[in-house]
Protein: Amine oxidase domain-containing protein
Amino acid sequence: GVSGFTAAATLLEHNVTDLVVLEASDRIGGRIHTVEFGGVVLDRGAEFCHGEVDNAVYDLIGPYDLLTSYDTLTTPNQCLSINTTGHVFNVTALRELGMKAFQIIYKGNLSHFNGSVADYFFPRLDQLFEERNVDSYTREALRRLAPLWEGAASGTDDLSVSGAWGQSNYWECEGDYNLKWKNGTRGYKTIFDFLSKKFPNPSEELPVMNKTVLGKQVTRIE
Structure:
């Protein structure tokens, strides 16, 4: 993962060369997993750079103009929302309702709620649906999408295991919270090029990969 890679790069940068990095899987990256699909680069793991102030990722890559705001990618004239049955959603209405759903969490009183974020969120989301007379297609879509969106923002895989109090005390970096890698870049895995100093100058690359053995798991430490 990025922590082990960074540790190795830091040691090599300080001329500590007697090291081996063991990676249990067949690739580096951990929760950063960039793949190509249909000629397009997709991030299946880490996807966003959340904020621009006191953010280690932004400090590293921000000056190179490789990021763009996700909001520019989801404007109604550039985005089509369609479900597996072929139902086409009104993107403007879906975005507006999605923002209202987010406000349940970010403007709610989670700090005094004894339960999970899911326990707090879903009953209030259903109440919002009733107040707005939302159709069944949109209800189903937002009940699926809203937890995914929030999970991407707060780094949780499941709102039911995320405590409401802890969520209310989640520290956020200031600035644009929805930065993504621009089209034409190599996606989030590009960060490894920065850490190894391959980018912006390939001649300065640290030999982290030469010190890495894939498919090896630590089973005993003596």
Observations:
- The mean pLDDT is 89.
- The longest strand covers residues 34-37.
- The helical segments are 2-13, 56-61, 91-106, 117-132, 136-154, 164-168, 190-195.
- The longest helix spans residues 136-154.
